[in-house]
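Researcher: Can you fold this with zinc ion in place?
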Amino acid sequence: MKTLALIGSFFVLCAMPASASAHTKLLGRSWQGRPIVAVEVGDPTGTRVLVFGSIHGNETGGIAIARALERLTPHGLDLWIVPDLNPDGVAAGTRQNAHGVDLNRNFSFRWRRMDGVYESGPRPFSEREARIAHSLILHLHPHVTIWFHQHLDMVWASGGDRRIEKEFARVSGLPYHPMPQLAGSSVTWQNNTLHDSTAFAAELPAGQPAPAAVARYVRAVFAAAKAP
Ligand SMILES: [Zn+2]
């Protein structure tokens, strides 16, 4: 399949892994040329879990959780971490990417044209960063994908396995809320496209999480991975 071959060629081993067992792979680059990487830790034969630390550039609290996850070697989990899918947005302090597009409205399922804060882009997957996430998710087919956002302070559950979402909510302390499936969002796309796969948004409170909170969210990631 073309997508798999393409992403395989992108998987270049980089220097300075996050931990002795970690593998850092360059997935591609943002519009402004910043690297977008994935880190794999744990057991490659274990349950596959994917975590995105940030997709909206003005919501960076999840990056600290991603960095904490990178330093671990979880047993029984093949844990993939993309600390920052939108490095141009983080650099500029904007929700959108360098084209002014909300990457979380640029996925294909129920995509529709939107302007302003939720600028969808001219067509599904018009944006390089969204295409990188799309290819990675298709390649990995994760059991669970967790997207960190801010700052609604809740688990935004829309279309995944509720047992998994609720277990994350219970351990993290974030209130569980069944929510609508947003047009063009990554979670909507994954939950309607991949079988036996659950995606949800973990909306952190505002600000940077304190160390105790980071540890709690790390435990919640593991709990969600092991939920039935
Ligand atoms: Zn967000």
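Model: Folded with zinc ion in place. Residues 211-226 form the longest helix (16 residues).
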